[in-house]
Task: structure prediction
Amino acid sequence: FSLTGMGVLQVAQFVQLDSQMAAHFIENKLEVDSYVNIALWRLNAGEDSLANFTTGDVTCSYDTTTLELVVTTVSHGINSSMLVTLEEYYHFKHAIATKGAISMGSYTVGEEIEHEVRDNYEFLPEIDLAYWLSVADTIFADNSRLYHDGDLVEGILIFTGSAPKFDDISLDNTTMVFTAPGVVEFKHTNVIRAVYTDSTIFPALVFTDSTSSFTIDDGAHDQDHIEGAIFSAGTIILAKGELSGPIVAREVTVNNNMDFLDSDYPQYYGWQEGFGSYYDYNWPKQILQWESN
Result:
């Protein structure tokens, strides 16, 4: 062999080795990517501990405090890994969130992108009725009563009577909880502002019965203004109104174009009082960012 010929063979060998290393690197990366998806599926299908497992050369570990998922493989002498930072998303992060359907037709909500509407959650937060009864300032038991502004004072108001109606009420620092089945009616213009602090967020309206129905602004000239979350185990119908959101219900129907005020009132988009501890739930998770090695 000439020196030139030997040089050509040596270069060819290096190219082959580089190609093999590149191929192995790609194989490792694809395997890591695949197991990130498997671990994420396990997290959302059951307990968080299911994301901690080893299969062959692949190891997956999840830190429930930092919400970081690490997937590592050592194959073909190459160490490949991916660090995935997750975020938990829950109902009160959305302008509208439902267990069932959101019927919108061609209408829009106009929410900020971080509060994008979402349907088909597998469950709703559980209302802690004992909590609400223990903190109630006033409990009303009248059936079919029409309430005016002078009949109510601000605070935690519990309504156990059926078919209550409200006409031109205006309440600050207030949460209204309705426990009876059927329809709750707001007539004309009504203003409710819920309480929030650095550590607690109270909803504005809570409907505990799965057969309850509430329509916001049913009349032609009504313009309800509600600052705070609206939660219903039943149905909410949106026709008009100035709403901060979030709206959480079994089902929601949107009958008009809405422009949520979520950008003006982002403080209400957090975990609400009266639904147990946030940590009592196994929340769905999604990828926030990732870094591969």
About this structure: The chain has a mean pLDDT of 88.
